[in-house]
Design a protein that fits this description.
Number of helices: 5
Largest sheet: none
Number of strands: 0
Distance between the termini: 24 Å
Strand content: under 5%
Radius of gyration: 21 Å
Shape: extended
Length: 145
């Protein structure tokens, strides 16, 4: 907020418009990248490699990718409607905390433990993820507000 007030005071409406356009373009780029990443993961990794055992043609992968993109959009809109009254900054901080809790054990084990295996790293990541999600769900921040 301080940046917005500073831009309005220093550069007037024009600078305020430029900053708003840059913020909008950044948000749009992040959403587009996450949607593309999710759709390609589902179409290539799950559909082509798991379900079709590497024998899927590119037309079928493209169709699954398009369906996944639409599904992700619908889910995002529904979640946006469901969490309309929530504090977004707080929810983003919870998401970052959960992501950090899943990544930290893997990073710590890979740096400090020379015999760390892929199986150990995956187990450590899942334990960090599960513990952080459970602790977030039972925390007063979720139940009191």
């Amino acid at each position: 907020m301080a940046v917005v007030h500073l831009a309005s005071a220093v550069g007037g409406e024009w600078l305020f418009g430029v900053i708003a356009a840059v913020a909008f373009a950044t948000i749009l780029a992040v959403v587009a990248g996450l949607t593309l990443s999710g759709a390609s993961a589902v179409s290539h990794d799950l559909y082509a490699m798991v379900f079709k055992k590497g024998k899927a043609d590119s037309a079928a992968e493209l169709k699954v990718s398009r369906i996944t993109t639409l599904a992700l959009g619908v889910v995002a809109v529904l979640l946006g409607i469901a969490f309309e009254k929530q504090n977004i900054a707080f929810m983003v901080s919870l998401a970052f905390a959960i992501a950090a809790s899943a990544n930290f054990p893997v990073l710590l084990m890979s740096v400090l433990w020379k015999d760390c295996t892929t199986k150990g790293a995956v187990i450590g990541g899942f334990l960090g993820l599960i513990s952080s999600v459970v602790l977030t769900i039972v925390s007063p921040a979720v139940w009191e507000a």
